[in-house]
Amino acid sequence: MLEISKIRNVDLDYLTYLLTTSEHDEEIFATADEMRRKYVGDEVYLRAIIEFSNVCTQNCLYCGLRAQNSSVRRYRMSVQEIVERAEFIAKLGVIGTVVLQSGEDPYYDTKMVTEVIMRIKSLGLAITLSLGERSFEEYRVWKEAGADRYLLKHETASPQLYARLHPGDSLESRKAHLLELKRLGYETGTGCMVGLPGQTPYDLALDLAFFRELDADMVGIGPFIPHPGTPLAHSKGGDVKTTLKMVALTRIILPDANIPATTALGSIDKDGRLLALKCGANVIMPNLTPNVYRDKYEIYPGKSSFYDTDLEAVQKALKTIEAAGLRLGRGPGGRRRIEALV
């Protein structure tokens, strides 16, 4: 019998046990699906990603965009290109949020990003920023300009593993940025990778505990997929079942959070996003980066969205929602907080 109270109370020993055995998997998935239906309903929201720059100053060991990967064909979209892409997304009529994502690229200064935010907000779209670690002052300015959400994955809540994967950086620094984003009033998103080299079930339990500690509004969980242009090229990747279990446990711990069925999961299993929707996820993020740039934003190989046209990416998302027996959510789809659960 699954002990729901131990999951909800983030009992690290019990979570580690659940992540070590498959004995309770079906009960975990069924419970998460029930909680998704009870607390966030049957609506699935689309968030359109615009990957506007693949330039990055960081050297994270797992990422294909790392600064030392000389094989990357770098690009930057202009402010006008970004806004025109957002205009296209707004006209589709089925997407309420645009996700502005890039490497950690200082070329886009405070003023440029502010202009993009203000122009896109005039289109009636919600804005999620995913620009990596920026200054606390920039976070403040961009929130005041109209940004609604900020996605900054921590990737692993193990301090030792984090330090190994992120040269010159620390988990405490990442946590400080996430807490500041929360303080400023952003809907704050984080997330982890499953199957990182050296990662243990206990490390994954620490991720779940951090989601709860942060009271994350959004949580993105995907499998680690090794990239040939990184030091982890020959490492084993993450698996579907453990990733789905992490999605489901996150739904049980944070019943009212927004949890995407990630592109990475769809990249290692053609039904990955569908399975995630059946295990507690309630968001899909179609990649609507202009086709001329899309295959250059290769944080991992085999991204399932590389070769879709814009409309194919949206149609696939809609078909996945339908196949899961769910329906499209309209509007920005922010977190509908249930205070009693916090």
UniProtKB/TrEMBL annotation:
Task: State the protein's name.
Answer: [FeFe] hydrogenase H-cluster radical SAM maturase HydE
Cofactor(s) annotated in UniProt: [2Fe-2S] cluster; [4Fe-4S] cluster
Taxonomic superkingdom? Bacteria
Q: Which GO terms describe its biological process?
A: sulfur compound biosynthetic process; water-soluble vitamin biosynthetic process
- Report the NCBIfam families cross-referenced here: rSAM_HydE
Output the Gene Ontology terms for molecular function: 4 iron, 4 sulfur cluster binding; metal ion binding; transferase activity
Instruction: Name the residues that bind S-adenosyl-L-methionine.
Output: 155, 174
Locate the residues binding [4Fe-4S] cluster: 56, 60, 63
Free-text comment on the cofactor: Binds 1 [4Fe-4S] cluster. The cluster is coordinated with 3 cysteines and an exchangeable S-adenosyl-L-methionine.
Q: Which organism is it from?
A: Fervidobacterium thailandense
Sorted keywords for this record are: 4Fe-4S, Iron, Iron-sulfur, Metal-binding, S-adenosyl-L-methionine
Under the heading InterPro entries, the entry gives: Aldolase_TIM (IPR013785), BATS_dom (IPR010722), Elp3/MiaA/NifB-like_rSAM (IPR006638), FeFe-hyd_HydE_rSAM (IPR024021), HydE/PylB-like (IPR034422), rSAM (IPR007197), rSAM_sf (IPR058240)
Check the record and name the PROSITE patterns matching this protein: RADICAL_SAM
Return the SMART domains for the record. Answer: BATS, Elp3
